[in-house]
Amino acid sequence: MSALSILADNITYLRMQIPKMSQQKFAAQLFITRDAYAKYENGKVNPPLDVLLAISKYYHISTDLLMTVDLRKYKLEEMLNLPDNRILLPIKTDATGENKIEIIPYKASMGYLTGYADPEYIEGLQTMSLPFLRNRKYRAFPVEGDSMPPYKDGTFIIGEYLENIADLKIGNAYLLVTRTGLTFKRIESINLNSITVKADNDFYDSYDIIFTDLWEAWKHAGSYSPLELKVPETKDEEMKLMLFKLMEDMKELKEKIKN
Questions:
Q1: Which of 201, 181, 215 is closest to 249 using CA atoms?
Q2: CATH class for domain 3-73?
Q3: Whole-model pTM?
Q4: Range list of β-strands (E), the chain
């Protein structure tokens, strides 16, 4: 479905939600003719930028949202505005209206980089609910490795959505969605154009993430592990666990050398 087609369907749908709002009346709001406006609803012509902005301001809906998401499928109140030109954060609710915690698949977490703002992707995720996490937007993300003990492979970090990067706090742990993937780290410092993050495991070095590469930040709100004990299912997993053990041994050796 093209952006022009989505826009045509959206502006038709939105106009029809207003009682007795005809094409003629809405065209008058935009200071254009009815014939010109009708072509926008028919998907024959793309509205010029000034008209598109006027439509956006009238409905209080971003131009990006008007052109990329079929608003007939999703309730506007179930979307959150995002900063930096990222327009929506789809929210799943149950029959009672309670927010559900979407679970990002462990073996397909990289798919989140392309689906995080796609309502259909979010709609297909499994969910969970925790009674002590309410009135905020939460998601559960898988963690890998041993950089943030005591969390290990198989653990899911539950994050509370951070609406503004300016709300990042030094010393707090966050699940960070970046241009290259997901990472669970603690904020070491906040710089002019970047943040410096570090692992709780001293074996790993700190590194910078520039703000333009930071797409989402989820503050650590809890965790859960489907398995109390992770048993290697394949030789690859067994080798990974052996590597983690070796890294722990190297860390202990480093500590002995320092002392």
A1: 201
A2: mainly alpha
A3: 0.57
A4: 79-80, 89-90, 101-103, 126-128, 138-142, 156-161, 173-178, 181-190, 194-198, 207-210, 214-224
How high is the mean pLDDT of the chain? 78
DSSP 2-61: -HHHHHHHHHHHHHHTSTT--HHHHHHHHTS-HHHHHHHHTTSSPPPHHHHHHHHHHHT-
Q: Which CATH number fits domain 89-224: 4.10.480.10, 2.10.109.10, 1.25.40.10, 2.160.10.10?
A: 2.10.109.10
Instruction: List pLDDT tens digits, range 83-117.
Output: 444 444 555 555 555 667 888 876 556 667 776 66
Owner of token pair 């995720």: 125
pLDDT at 60 over 70: yes
Q: Please, what sign has the CA dihedral across residues 144, 146, 152, 158?
A: negative
> What would the pLDDT profile of 188-208 be if each residue is shown by its tens digit?
999 988 999 999 988 889 999
Q: Find the mean pLDDT for residues 199-223.
A: 89
- Residue boundaries of the structural domains of the chain: 3-73, 89-224, 233-259
User: What number is the average pLDDT over the span 25-38?
Assistant: 94
Taking CA 67 as the corner, what is the angle to CA 63 and CA 72, rounded to the nearest 5 degrees?
110
